[in-house]
Amino acid sequence: MRREVTARPGVFPRRRPFLVTGLACGFLGLLLATLEACERKSPTEASVPPDPSATFSRVQREVLTPSCALSGCHVGSSPVLGLSLEAGRSYRLLVGVPSVETSLLRVSPGLPNDSYLVVKLRADGAILGGRMPPGTPLAASQTSLVTDWIRRGAPND
């Protein structure tokens, strides 16, 4: 004879712990695999590969030297905020170095939207000290060059 099991109000049937544990482990594994497959990228970063010709020597020659390493700015013995952007000094003072004004790195390799240099060039959000360089903004091609160099991992070539 078969016994019928009826649930009493307020009493829940016992679940088998191994089923719950198995489901939780499966879900956790799926979540970790998904996170591992994702690369850290903000929604505004381009999905096209960076320009392979975006090198630090080009950034120095086409952006930093003509627009930033100017008298009274980021050059000389007392550059603004201690950041000299002169050739031969700029790379070590930019890449992986915390900015003085925020918690961002000046250049965070691979992450242009998390790089203070790009924030200042684009004038993203409420930034301290305003957009750089002061006066006329950089051309879009110059900003793209800097962004692509950082997306490439900010190599020192």
Residue windows where pLDDT falls under 50 for at least 5 positions? 30-44
Order of helices and strands: HHHHH
Helix and strand content put the structural class at mainly alpha
The fraction of residues assigned to DSSP E strands is under 5%
Q: What is the gyration radius calculated from CA atoms?
A: 26 Å
Q: Could you tell me the mean pLDDT?
A: 80
Overall geometry: globular
Distance between the ends: 83 Å
Please estimate the helix content.
25-40%
Q: Please give the count of helices.
A: 5
- Main beta sheet: strand number and arrangement? none
The overall strand count is 0
Structure at a glance:
By secondary structure, this protein is mainly α.
Task: Please give the structural blueprint.
Layout: H1 17-37, H2 56-67, H3 90-94, H4 116-122, H5 140-151
Helix pairs in contact: 2-5
Describe the overall structure.
The chain contains 5 helices and no strands. It has a domain at 56-151. The chain has helices at residues 17-37, 56-67, 90-94, 116-122, 140-151. The termini are far apart. The chain is 36% helix and 0% strand. With 157 residues, the chain is an all-alpha fold. The chain is globular.
